[in-house]
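Anyone else keep sequences and structure tokens together like this?

Example one:
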Amino acid sequence: MTDLVPVTRALISLSDKSGLEALAEGLKRHGIEIVSTGGTAAKLREHGAQVRDISDLTGFPEMMDGRVKTLHPKVHGGLLGVRDNSEHAAAMRDHDIVPIDLVVVNLYPFLETVMSGADRNSIIENIDIGGPSMVRSAAKNHAHVAIVTDPADYAELLVELDSNSGQTSLDFRKRLAAKAFALTAAYDSIVSQWFAFADQQQRWPDSWSLTNRLKMPLRYGENPHQQAALYIPVGPQARGIAQASQIQGKELSYNNLNDASAALDLAAEFRDGDPAVVIVKHANPCGVAQRASLVAAWTEALACDSVSAFGGIVAVNRSLDAATAEAITAIFTEVVVAPDADEAARAIFAKKKNLRLLLTGDLPDPARPGQMLSVIAGGLLVQDRDNLRVTRDQLQCVTKRAPTTQELADCLFAWTVAKHVKSNAIVYAKDGVTAGIGAGQMNRRDSARIAAIRASEAAQANGWPQSRTIGSAVASDAFFPFADGLLAAAEAGATAVIQPGGSIRDDQVIAAADAAGLAMVFTGVRHFRH
């Protein structure tokens, strides 16, 4: 391949015409002929550039409302011809095809048209055909042609031309070609998704192409010997931890973001309620509380399991204030996630140089639709988000004793938290505060016992007269297959139970609950989280 290639002729065809004036001035400085199309040509002339119309190059007028203007052998021959191939060179001479050394193209705004709510005909008209064809032709022949698809690259292009006396280097053209093929792949992916999901209403299309772009490399993966990076979807996306702004602190790691995402998802469950604080460790909540103020909620959430909270992730559902910031920074905290933080809170966090502060703006909607992806060996698992929310009216009381109003409130709070705890999950809660959390055990009885142990340790650490499991509600993310797990909860002092129901031994579990004087409600749905 030739390294330095002189640029004598450029083809420019743009939807986004930002930066065009400076680009035209730079090309003029090097005596580069400009060939252009329709609106781009008119804009270039407004800027005083000398422009050759594409119809003059091809000998055919632009036609069919601009659908056919660059789809011509004199365009693609000028892009694809291999200059040092004698047969190609002869064909170009025989057919009066001139080489094109530089292509500057961006594509019709298909995604923006879809997002604007446009009708189907407008959306179809904004599927670019000629643009991607030119991009791919130029990128394929990057040995001789430079392809620029992003206005952000105009400055680098002009530096390249200035540094090399009007020529482009092979390394530069390679980088541009890689970016160009990524662009057309993403563009086709968005178009195909629109056809499959929006236009054809397909549930599971035969082919699902997903395109993501790099947001940033991460410090490392789950372990320091693993490299990692954060990518975000190209196209429509719901706000989440990936869209948060990092205000301060060290670079983020894979675990930081994974845990912060879990914390934010749970905090978002309370976005319309009282101030709430969620503390997460290894993607599991270890303390959750709602109170009249954030600082009070922090105190109660921390008290649930202050040992696990050390080095944890904190998410809140309100803008952070100074009092809450002071309280959080009193212990070692890796990441704090919030919709916002006032100036006083930011100043307090700034004293902890390594603490990462992530601000999200509006909290994500916990009921939003969407899919969750999980990579397995040789494939990709896809499922709907677990966005189901259980209300009081959906609960079925199955015991002789019905729960009190307070027990119902505690049941629903515990159920909301249990939805975000790794299975098998058991959560004790009382008065809007988690009392104990048992996560990720191979049987439900052990989760119930571990949660009770955590609550007992919290009582000792805080000097309480008794464990907060006494008089609490207990939530189980899936049914109790045997009565042993429920009896372990009763032994810990729980008085109310919320669970999905549906076991072949439901009658035995209900009888055990009645014998223990428990009130129990069924939700009819489960919340496994693996």
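And example two:
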Amino acid sequence: MGDLGGAGLRFGLLGPLRAWYGEQELELGRPQQRAVLAVLLQAPGRTVAVPVLVEGVWGGASPADPRKAVQLAVSRLRSAFRPYTGDDPDRMPLVRVGDGYAFRAPHAEVDATAWEELLAEAGRLRDADAPPQEVRKVLRSAQRLWVGEPLAGLPGPHAEAVRARLAEQRISAKETELELDAELGDRTDLTAEAEALALEHPGRPRLTTVLMRALYQAGRKAEALAVYEDARPSLPPDDRGPAELQLRILREDASLLPATAPTNPADPATDTWQAPDQLPAGLPDFTGRTEEVEALLDRLAAGGGRAVVVSALDGMGGVGKTTLAVHVARQVRERFPDGQLFADLRGADHTPPDPGTVLVGFLLALGVDPAEIPPDTGERSALYRSALAGRRVLVVLDNAATPGHVEPLLPGSAGCAVLITSRHRLAGLPGAHQLRLDTLPPEQALELLTRIVGAERVAAEADAAEEVVRACGLLPLAVRIAASRLVADPSLTLAALAEGLCHEHRLAELSDGERTVEATFALSYRRLDPELARAFRLMSLPDAPDLPLHCAAALLGRTEDEADELLETLVDLNLLHSPRFGRYGFHDLVRAYARGRLAAEDDAAERTAATDRLLDFCLATARNADLAARKAEPAELSLLGATVASPGRAIADGAEAVRWMRDQAEVHAAAIALGCDDPALSLDRAAELADRMGAVLPERTQTGVIADLAERIARQAAARGEHGPLALAHYLRGSMLWHINRYAESEEEIRRAVALSDRQESGGQGAAGQESGGQGAAGRKSDGQGAAGQERTERVLAKALITLGSNARTHGRYAEAAEHAGRAAAIFHRLGAQRAEGSALGEFAFSAAQTGRVDEARDAAERSARLMSASGPVSAAIGRYYLARVLRLCGDPEAALDHAVGAREEFTALQVTVFAAAAGDLAARIHAEAGRWLLAVDAAEAVLPLARRTSAALEAGLLRTLGTALDGLGRPRQARACLADSLELYERLGLADESAQVRGLLSR
């Protein structure tokens, strides 16, 4: 009974009439008895005359002796209440009063009464202009009281009238709730519910407008307009709401867009917004910059009708741009209660991160499900702006390279503000307020030195202190490093430090600010002991923004405790910084200096050994993550047989595995790049690490990154003649490209992998040798010989064949797809890889069924489901989905529907988004093929938001099914809008057969 509870009498009318005393349900008897009780419950405490009871229960078909019938019903009801009354007649709630009866139990709880009280509360809140979230919360509490049709199964005019009144109240309250949903914009599944209700209750203007607005918010403008045209004949002529909304949609009224970020579609009632807090820690000894601070604070306070962009902090490296930006940002945090985002754009690097990669981090920090993040940077930027709509968030973009580097990262909400730092003035950035940051005035530079070193020590050598800050070029970074040197060595005098700095200047013939900083680095570096100096140099080797302690320890070849002590000492000396606990990175100028020292002092063997240790640790940990996330078969963890010496970091479960692989993606990419650039290392571990990235983190946010890494590995493997890594890299790149619908490129890569693997399997070189340019020593080392090498070659071949078959299936070449998948299944069967065999059999079964081999296909699908059911919940759900789609093609649609719906529920619970969308698409198609148009629309709309962010091909298929179902429901204009969108997607993907089918539907 929803929110009702307690130990007294309770009654439920919002469903079949039921009664409880405490936790004991009372037996109320026949329908006429229940109907009498229902009349009395609707008039609590008041007397209801017998004729009124008779008319309410029996209507025009009253019994021969109506009064006796009522007396008998009341008597039996009194017997039902005995567990409540016991032997005390005063507790009896049904009492005789004159010529009628009354229900008198003042503390009894009735769900219909609670329902109406909650509706009244929601009305009062709306009248008082309460926040829409509060009103909606009350309405949702009220809706939870319902368990079915009111007074279900009870006869008589009274029950019928109560049903009609409560049903109208319910649909009206639901309309209000959906309007609030649309206003807040925090439900990605709003369209599905609005569509179902509009079809179930045609002619209701409020439902029509909610559906139109939900479709418009979902980017389906043509469908939104078509809904109005289809519904117009059934709408009341005096209600102008839908017509006015049509005009606003045509004008693209911005106020129709969501006011808040979308929530997780798996739980539409839950707000998934997270208020990020990404600002680095401020410096307690921040000094000076009073005018600049005030200017920035004034600018942030003056934000008006659009996002404030402050590109005020341009200046040379080391001048203190980041420190100032963070200092100001932390002062204004309270003005931005929805959170603060921070990103180092590494604009001074040779290859700064793509804005799309930064957007992934921002979206994850805002609570967006990784599966909901699209692969395209433009789409990510649009989702980011939608997530920030109506929010007050401060965004700090540090070290930008160009205006194009930051434009995708700018919010559009008037409540947001942006602080940008750059070494160059970002001319042309719209709305930017420019502020040049110069070196510190001499007195502020001296004050900074004093605050770090101590007033007494500076006062004792005042002249030398001034020489130090002048020798530091008045650059804050240089002053901080010099001061840290003094703090670390109390015996070092300021005069000696000043002399050392001047000496470094003379040696380098320095003339500009950044070279002045380099002189400061040199002086500090020369005072490091050998172990610290080695750590300083080696930490600069990977091209990653920072390293976690675990990876840093592996890179240095030290225990974590030893590495922690070394790195914290370098942090104290301002030669490293720690952006968050347990992670260590460089200021880019310091990194450049460290790399210079690495090249000058460490030979190639030392750099190779460090890279080898880092790759070894990363691969070992990635394998641990794969075991925790997927319970992968041992052979799956090492497709090339690469050996690792490190045990890696222990990973507790799948959630930790995904977090680790996501957080270390840039570190893994840097380690792979080092492996590719070092000819002394074979590429097997780099290739396997990239493969584990794709296996453990199958998110579309990573597919492009992994595809690029695979391309880099392939280039190097071809040049070195390393056939195993070459084949794996081609397979991996092809697989990643397939998942982002780049089918032609995917097929080209996969065919290369198959050709290479076929040649290796047969023991020849042929095409593989031609592509790789011959087999060198490194290639002989990684290819592996004998039975183990043969097995690894076969595994890569079989995985490539599955993807090749999937590509053929996507383009309707089912006979070819079945041949590839069948060959892969046979290989996996020979190798004893049951889960992989089950997956290949599922692919084979679907394509075989498409060619008419239905008996063979059904047998294969059932075997696939059996094999995969023993390999964990995700694999079991995939096997069930494979079986469902084959059963549909084999003429058993109801069994197929049962498995499709079950698989969709399992995928949703497991948060496997793309398969949840695929299973929902299958269920929608089965309903449509059976002419169950309403159910088809419900099933399609429920998963369409998932498909839109996971697979363009799935989205196109769902739109086709939705269009077919809407046409069957007599909604031709909305149906054509869906089909037109489907056709556009199919043509963009180059899927000719599907495009032709949709054109046929449109031409009817």
